[in-house]
Amino acid sequence: MDTILSVRNLVKNFDDGGKRTINVLNDISFDVDKGNFIAIMGPSGSGKSTLLYNISGMDRPTKGKIILEGKNIDNLSEVEMADIRLRKFGYVFQQPHLINSLSVKENIIMAASVLNKKVDKNIENRANELMRLTGIIELADRDTASLSGGQAQRVSICRSFMNNPRLVFADEPTGALNSKASGEIMNLFVDINRKGSTIMLVTHDPLVAAKANQVWFLLDGIIYKKEVLGPWDKMQASLINRKDIINKIMSEIEI
Ligand code: ADP
Ligand code: MG
Asked: The whole model's pTM is what?
């Protein structure tokens, strides 16, 4: 399988305002296969968000190499990095951060209009296709302030996929949703992943992580364990099995 992202000897330290250095990520190395769907778990404060931000160009590692499709991206200028983020990466956060003065469709198209000065038919078509895929096509002209949490998260997922990202990073995307909406959003990530997108998703919820292909556990600054579950067959019984496997590891490491 092709590697899309390689991380080598990643170290991330924070300065706590002078005297002490906090070491959050301690010499982490891994490869991400193209088309994989990886859930990242770990205790609160273990560095899950920090890991995601440092490998996705939102923050800079203290040390180490980040290699995207064979090219180093850790040494790029801010402008070059912004370009990579826009063209190659998609981001989904716990809060969708939509612009309320714009409609659902306008929010989604906005991502593409930064790259393409003119919003042409292709961009419109892509937005429509994504809204259909995520089940929000009827909401296209709605004001985003009136959406439910689950609907708003669907809009942010569409927005993050507008530029056909190579890799999608999601930080607790279901963290603010009820369990039904959370399950639906995860099903959407599963479908999107089956269409070929590579996904790295941080969650603290074992039922959410159970739908990923692999679950990586972050502990004490390193990836303590990688559990390979394989693709989920979409059966409820197997989901419960997978959740049990995750729960067992979580209790082992006292999450
Ligand atoms: P998680 O997402 O697993 O809950 P984080 O990655 O947010 O954890 O944080 C990991 C550790 O790094 C925490 O101790 C946090 O306080 C610290 N940290 C995160 N960002 C910063 C920052 N910008 N400055 C200083 N410390 C930070
Ligand atoms: Mg976090």
From this structure: 0.95
